[in-house]
Amino acid sequence: MKFTVVKPVILASASPRRKEILSLLGFPFTVVPSNVAEDLAVENDDFEGYARQLAAMKTQAVANDKPNCIVIGADTIVVHEGKLYSKPESNEQAQVFLKELSGKTHSVITGVGVFMDDKICTFSVQTKVTFRELDDMLINAYVESGDPMDKAGGYGIQTAGALLVDKIDGDYYNVMGLPIAKLTEYIRKLGFMELNGGVSFIDN
Hints:
Radius of gyration: 17 Å
Strand content: 25-35%
């Protein structure tokens, strides 16, 4: 199954995981990292709004130089009991994150921004992830592998971090960093993309 798009597509992210997921749609796109600092403050515990705003900022940063393209940006965060778990800055912080999430259910929220024709639209998707009870030996081994360091919450479900997970409730690809089913639905509704052969989106 492949799609066609009405304009060139740019993924405003350096994430290899997002690149891999977007490739599922079968159209060519280029990658232009946004390099936006993720230092925005969360207001009134609105974590979904926070993720959408960061995604919009990343999308806009690239769209400023690519106004005639479709630009897709995203930001993924991990939240538990009102605390935001960013990408760990050290092995020690990664260990703290994983110990705090051990045996608990947390939320993975991805905000997505889509730019075309001088307008950015955003949405967010939330998935619940439950960790197993993690012992120190497993946590330390995983942290020493280096895998946690570029991932929100200190783990990647598509890598060895899958060994930490007991169950998920929601979109697996959202936990990876890009909710591709929702994104596909969204940009088809906006009229930016259609199935090869001209099959239009039907809203049931």
